[in-house]
Design brief:
The chain has 736 residues and is an alpha+beta fold. It is built from 24 helices and 14 strands. Helix 5 packs antiparallel against helix 6.
Amino acid sequence: MIIYPWGDYKVVKVSIFWNIQTLKVTQPNWGEEFEFGTSPEAAIMFSDNLEELKASSCEKKIYVCEDFQQDLVDEEISQVSPELIKDIGFSTLLMRGLSETGSIHLEEILGEKITKITNFKMIDTKVRGQYTDLLSDIVERGGHSSLRIGQWFNQVTLYLSYLEEKGIALFPIDVDCVVVSNSMIVQLSVPVENFYKDYVTKAFSPDASFESPFINSLYHLEVQAQGNDITYLESNKVVLISGHWNRSVKNFTPGLIFHSVPRFEAESKKEYNSYRLEQIKEAALKGQISLPGSSVEMHELSAFEKSANTVQIKQMVKFFKENGDLSNITIEGMGALAESYYKVKGGSRLSPQELKMTFQALTDPDTLDELNTVINSLDSTLPLGEEITRVGGLIEEMDLDELIRITGQAQAPEEKTRISGVTQKLTTETWKVKRLEVAEKLEKELSKKKNVTAADVRETLNSIFEESMGFSSANLVDSIAEEGLAGAQKNWSRVSGSDITSQQKISQLDSALKSRNIMIAKMKNLLEEMKSAKQASAPAATSIITEVDANRTDAVHLDQLRQSNGELLAAKARYEDEIRMLKQEINTQAAVISQNQNNEAKVEKSAGNFELTIQSKNQQLEKVTSELRLLEDTAKALNIKVKSLEQKNKILQSQLEGASNEAESDATKVDTRFVQKIKQLETLNGNLQEENKKYQVELQAKKAEAHKHALENKTMKTKMHQLERQVANLSKKRAA
């Protein structure tokens, strides 16, 4: 049995060709036609017969089933339920992927079917919780349950965080949320590099592993959403990951659709003239790395692919080779060599790693080949964008001497150039006229093309020089194209960040406001059409009424549109107020930061004063301590002298007693000299005792003073430590 998913589509043609029946189907809003086959040989096949699908050679196989089968994820077979095929929102996504046409923006492919739409940008997966909260708020306002949709979104962003670590998924990511009737669709537009289906199928593996968390990161995703759509757009290098939910369907069979997601093995077999793919294949054959089909190892970008200054590295290599002797060049001398380049050419200052890469390109032919391969890839893939104006400006500012130097044209005044078929001498004045003409033609020709690359600049500029100047120069063309490419690479690689929450909310409000304005403009146009329709014939009016709403009258619909218009204008005013409040909040935060900086300066000044005070106290403490040591030494000397006198006194007392015994109890015979000597010693001893007491009192006072200074010093040090902690805390807050 063959199932056809047209839903809101019309079958416009049925044809038989070599017994293969095809159906051409058109979608009313697009006007596009595409074919679906009804046999195993068709390019696209829908069937509820799994064996038939497996045996067919279709490029795209879609199994219409009531039960989801996990093992089919790795067999190139998508799965979808009959309920999903009938849903207008999901069928539109399905047709976009199958036809490989249409816009990546949901509001463009769903058009007037959308009743609500919200957009925001996701800058970093490391704060997935904030984005999940933001999405949950949007989902709740859209009348859907945020639990299942939030789980789906968190699981997808976790998966993307692993790809981001390996340089496969790039940021920012656009997130679109739309409501179509009873359905909600959430779509993530993810810029990617070298994305393969192997990265998806491995993530759906049921085998959980602590060592390899990438495996199993998307397992159970199919039960979080009624429909999952993964579409890879090779021309845009974008993967669209979409989830679909219909609140009117309670019991559902999950669906998983893949569109144009290549396998690594198939891609590696293509004969690309690419250094990187050849290296991967050779390494795989040697067993150095595993292909993603058998493991989850990601393919790392080379250092030149990661750098934002690859073009400048190429220019520096060229400059050094043309202007210096490289026979004795060393990695240590690259810094001085780079300074000579900056003085002449200017440009960004390279990091030590980039200087090392420049040195390797100068000394190693294989590294130089790798650099040239990356430059060639950038030539043909990296869009120059706003750098086109700069490219034209380079020609307008180029003087004749510089033209001669770059092109190698000698003796410019004697050279001839053909102008409109007439030979004319190339002078400064003629070059001033011709360079404006060349720049104008270049910008005009490039403006006709989309996503202009450096290769386009080379081709166009070479043709214009041949036509206008009568000669061309590969050096001139390369120089100008590389200047534009260098600026474009820096713009492409630049990542800015600030307050995530405020940025996302403002982005969300701006997107909502933009969508509201578009809807208001559409309704105003519709009102004008209806006014014109009233003046036309009745059949024409009926036709317009039927197109807008077959069940409503002109007057009722007009009143409703006016009411809706008023509501939208009021909503616009509310959004503008919210944006204004957010800006005020940002200004308030800036004022708080400024105040914190002032407080920090005051604290630092106070800390400086405390340091001076502590130094003064330390000096006082040292002085008192020195005086204390002097007093202690004096007291020790006095004690020694007192002890000496006491010893002499004892000797004299002993002599006196001996003399008294020999005098036969005659007191008058005692030598008066001894009595006088004793009195002198007693007087001297008393004086020494008084002096010692005086020194002891002074010593105790000095000890008390020293103790006081020590306590003050300890208190000051404690306050100093507190101030240092305050300064550290303020520094952390300011850094945060």
